[in-house]
C-alpha cells in the first residue's frame, strides 16, 4: 500500500495534486526535496525490484521487505525499523563509472552516516559497511533498464535482525546503538540520497579517479583477508582497489586483481 510521495522535480500542478491526494487518503504530507522524488511503501518483496522501472533520480523506501537480497541472491533480513531504500541513477553499462558505482555508493552512505555521528566506520569490499567487525549496512546494484542502475541500500537503524535470524547474533550493529539521536527513517533516507547524488555527480563530472583516494581510505588498512572464489580459497593482504573497483590482493610477492563477480565472499582474518 502506497503511503506517501516525496515530490521534487514535477511541475507545480503535479505537486499540488500529489499533496491533495495524500491528505485525502490520510497519508503524510509530501516532503519537498531539491534532488529526488521518493516514494514510500509499507511492504514490498524487494525495493530494487519495485524500483526497476523508475527513471533516474527517483527512489523508493519500504518499511519492510519480504524478499530482501544481497549479492549472489543471499537473503537480507529487512525487518521494521531499518532503512530499505533503492535509488535510480544514470550510468552507462560497462563504463568506468559503472564499475566504480558500488564503491561510490558505499562511500556516499559512509559520508551520510558519519555526518550523523557514526565513528569507526569502514567498508568491506565490495558492498558492506561495518563498525568494527559488525555489519551496519550493505548495498546491492542492479540494472533493469539501459543507462540506469538501481542502488539498493539497507541500513540497520532500530530494527533487530538477529531476532529474525539467530546466526546474526554478534554480527550486526544498529545505528541506534551508535548515535545519541537516531534520525527518522525518512530523514535518514533524504540524507543518504543527497550524499549519493553529490558523490555520483562528482564521478560523472571528474571520473572515478576523483574519489579513489577517499574510497581507499575507508578500508581500514592494512588488513589480512581470505577470498572465497566459489570454493577456492585465496589468502593475502588487502591493498585497496583500482579505478575499476577491482580488489588488489598482495599474496606471495604478487599483486592480483579480482572483479566483484569472481569473489563470493571476503572474510577478514583476525591477526
Question: How would you sum up this structure, described in words?
Answer:
There is one protein chain. Helix 2 (47-50) links the parallel strand 2 and strand 3. The strands form two sheets. The protein has an eight-stranded mixed β-sheet with strand order 1-2-3-4-8-7-6-5. By secondary structure, the protein is of the alpha+beta class. The chain folds into three domains: 1-32, no CATH class; 34-216, BirA Bifunctional Protein, domain 2 (2-Layer Sandwich), CATH 3.30.930; 223-268, SH3 type barrels, CATH 2.30.30.100. The protein contains six helices and 13 strands. Residues 1-30 have low confidence and may be disordered. It has helices at residues 12-24, 47-50, 96-115, 161-164, 185-206, 212-216; strands spanning 2-6, 37-44, 58-65, 83-90, 121-124, 128-131, 134-142, 148-155, 223-229, 232-241, 247-251, 254-258, 265-268. The longest helix has 22 residues, at 185-206.
Short recap of the structure:
Helix content is 25%, strand content 31%. With 271 residues, the chain is of the alpha+beta class.
- Helix tally? 6
CATH superfamily of the largest domain: Bira Bifunctional Protein, Domain 2
> How helical, in percent, are the residues?
25-40%
Mean pLDDT across all amino acids: 85
- Kindly name the structural category: alpha+beta
What is the CATH topology assignment of the largest domain? BirA Bifunctional Protein, domain 2
Number of domains: 3
- CATH class assignment of the largest domain: Alpha Beta
At CATH's second level, what is the architecture of the largest domain?
2-Layer Sandwich
Shape by Cα distribution: globular
Uncertain spans, ≥5 residues at pLDDT below 50? 1-30
Amino acid at each position: 500500500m502506497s503511503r506517501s510521495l516525496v515530490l521534487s522535480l514535477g511541475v507545480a500542478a503535479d505537486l499540488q495534486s500529489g499533496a491533495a491526494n495524500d491528505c485525502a487518503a490520510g497519508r503524510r504530507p509530501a516532503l519537498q526535496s531539491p534532488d529526488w522524488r521518493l516514494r514510500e511503501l509499507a511492504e514490498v518483496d524487494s525495493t530494487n525490484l519495485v524500483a526497476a522501472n523508475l527513471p533516474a533520480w527517483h527512489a523508493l523506501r519500504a518499511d519492510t521487505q519480504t524478499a530482501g537480497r544481497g549479492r549472489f541472491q543471499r537473503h537480507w533480513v529487512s525487518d521494521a525499523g531499518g532503512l530499505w531504500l533503492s535509488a535510480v541513477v544514470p550510468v552507462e553499462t560497462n563504463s568506468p563509472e559503472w564499475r566504480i558505482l558500488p564503491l561510490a555508493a558505499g562511500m556516499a552512505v559512509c559520508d551520510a552516516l558519519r555526518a550523523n555521528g557514526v565513528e569507526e566506520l569502514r567498508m568491506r569490499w565490495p558492498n558492506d559497511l561495518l563498525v568494527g567487525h559488525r555489519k551496519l549496512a550493505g548495498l546491492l546494484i542492479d540494472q533493469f533498464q539501459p543507462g540506469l542502475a538501481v542502488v539498493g541500500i539497507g541500513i540497520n537503524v532500530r530494527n533487530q535482525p538477529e531476532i529474525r535470524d539467530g546466526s546474526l547474533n554478534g554480527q550486526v550493529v544498529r545505528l541506534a546503538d551508535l548515535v545519541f539521536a537516531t534520525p527518522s527513517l525518512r530523514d535518514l533516507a533524504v540524507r543518504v540520497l543527497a550524499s549519493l547524488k553529490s558523490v555520483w555527480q562528482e564521478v560523472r563530472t571528474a571520473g572515478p579517479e576523483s574519489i579513489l583516494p577517499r574510497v581507499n581510505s575507508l578500508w581500514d588498512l592494512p588488513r589480512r583477508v581470505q577470498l572465497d572464489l566459489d570454493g577456492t580459497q585465496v589468502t593475502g593482504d588487502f591493498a585497496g582497489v583500482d579505478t575499476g573497483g577491482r580488489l588488489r590482493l598482495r599474496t606471495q610477492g604478487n599483486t592480483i586483481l579480482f572483479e566483484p563477480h569472481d569473489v563470493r565472499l571476503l572474510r577478514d582474518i583476525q591477526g
